[in-house]
Amino acid sequence: MARFSIKPYTVLITATGRAPIVLKLRPVPLLVGLGVLMGLPIAWIGLLLYQNVQLAQRNQNLSETASEVLTELNAIGHEIEVLKTRAGLPDREAENTRLPSDEKIPPRGGVAEVALAETMFDEARRQLPGIEQMLAIAVKPALEQTLESEAEQAAAFPSGKPIAGKADVSSEFGLRPNPFGARRYEMHEGLDFSGPVGKPILATAEGVIVRADYNGGYGNHVKIDHGYNYETLYAHMSKIEVKIGDRVQRGDVLGYLGSTGRSSGPHLHYSIYRNGRAVNPRYYLKLEETQ
């Protein structure tokens, strides 16, 4: 088989009256040089394209990040408005720190243009001081007062157990036959819980003792003013463990179950008063959890 080889060429250029010019051409170096010369622009163009793609991707990522920051700020602004409402703040207290998102947007339109990342970051930086000022000056103090008041109301709500251990209801709230056998009905303003003498009687909410003495009908009894228009009554105790003026917490022992006063047997009479009127304690107690 014949071996292929590229031979050099000699080119002779002559002109009348002048010495001839001899050029010796070597194909391999010539082709390599031409390839290099042609490849340089292509490589340069490819590098530029790659750099542009990378720059575009970075700009896209930056724009997405800026958009996310503004979205989060708007969400925070909405949550602040919710907290303001809960804290009972009127709008006029935060006029100087109102966010642009709080304002009504008038009818608008036109061709949509993508916002620059720098513009969105500038807007975020502009909003942050207003948010911080609103939280520090207006929302936080008012919300702390609101939460404190809510905690006080929750502590004063008579939802606790009035008797330790198992709670057996022996008489419901409302009309009932006379427990001593008379042929008439009577209004029972509470719930009766039966049990052995000496069983601890517990405060169902925080409050101040306003009665702790003997009464012909209720026998040894305790009355607590819980505030927020709530009072509770605990009657027929064998012994009282508190006195007028004491402040008690939910679960504190007030005395012990007995059968003093108008009673047919050992039990606790428990009443709840709302705005001075007796209400059914079942609306406040979770009796299934007192077993």
Question: What do these coordinates show?
Answer:
- With 291 residues, the chain is α+β, with helices and mostly antiparallel strands.
- It folds into two domains: 1-102 and 112-156, no CATH class; 168-289, Glucose Permease (Domain IIA) (Distorted Sandwich), CATH 2.70.70.
- Helices cover 35% and strands 28% of the residues.
- The chain contains two helices and 14 strands; from the N terminus they run E-E-H-H-E-E-E-E-E-E-E-E-E-E-E-E.
- The protein has helices at residues 27-87, 117-156, and strands at 9-15, 18-25, 168-171, 174-177, 185-188, 191-194, 200-202, 207-215, 219-227, 230-240, 247-248, 253-257, 267-274, 277-279.
- Strands 3, 6, 7, 8, 9, 10, 11, 12, 13 and 14 form a ten-stranded antiparallel β-sheet that branches. Strands 1-2 form a two-stranded antiparallel ribbon.
- Helix 1 (27-87) packs parallel to helix 2 (117-156).
Could you give the count of β-strands? 14
State mean pLDDT (0 to 100 scale).
76
Count of folded domains: 2
Strand content: 25-35%
From N to C, what is the helix and strand string? EEHHEEEEEEEEEEEE
- Helicity level, as a percent range? 25-40%
Q: Largest sheet, if any?
A: 10 strands, antiparallel
Structural class: alpha+beta
**What would the principal axes of the Cα set say about the shape?**
rod-shaped
Distance between the termini: 107 Å
Instruction: Please give the count of helices.
Output: 2
